[in-house]
Write a structure and sequence with these properties.
Number of strands: 5
Strand content: 5-15%
Strand order of the largest sheet: 2-1-3
Largest sheet: 3 strands, antiparallel
Distance between the termini: 33 Å
């Protein structure tokens, strides 16, 4: 629930309380020619009937009800904040999982290149090419496999 809804509910409660206490309704009471008693907010149309004006004042609003309404509004606001926080946390978790999956895919592609058996070369800053030895290839494969085991297990769960 957003703050606007809480303010609207509070304003409606206050408005209702003010209008009930300040706006006492005027009611007309009359007895028709058959002896039936009638009550209305408008005076009778016939002039031959003597109508009494009754001022009806509603009771003041119950303070407990107002407190309960305020408490309910606060609880609703708190619950909505918890839902928002949970959604935000879930979104962060999903983003982290997507990033781990992306890293896992990259590591698996690198391992696949090493395992294809073709000669693997690296190029240094000066542009010199050097080929990876079989021992270095095996070490790199093992390092990548260790990283995959560490990264991809958490990315898939």
């Amino acid at each position: 629930m957003n703050i606007h809804l809480v303010v609207s509910i509070s304003a409606a409660i206050v408005f209702a309380a003010i209008s009930l206490s300040a706006g006492a309704d005027q009611v007309y009471r009359w007895v028709d020619k058959d002896g039936h008693v009638h009550y209305s907010q408008t005076p009778p149309a016939s002039t031959g009937v003597n109508a009494q004006t009754l001022n009806i004042t509603p009771p003041a609003p119950d303070p407990t009800t107002l407190q309960n309404d305020q408490k309910l509004a606060q609880q609703t606001q708190d619950r909505d904040k918890q839902v928002q926080d949970a959604q935000k946390t879930e979104q962060q978790v999903q983003q982290e999982q997507a990033q781990r999956q992306k890293e896992c895919d990259y590591l698996q592609q690198r391992l696949q290149v090493l395992q294809q058996g073709a000669r693997v070369a690296t190029v240094d800053a000066q542009g010199n090419r050097s080929y990876v030895s079989d021992d270095d290839r095996a070490k790199q494969e093992q390092q990548l496999q260790d990283q995959i085991n560490k990264t991809c297990v958490t990315a898939n769960h």
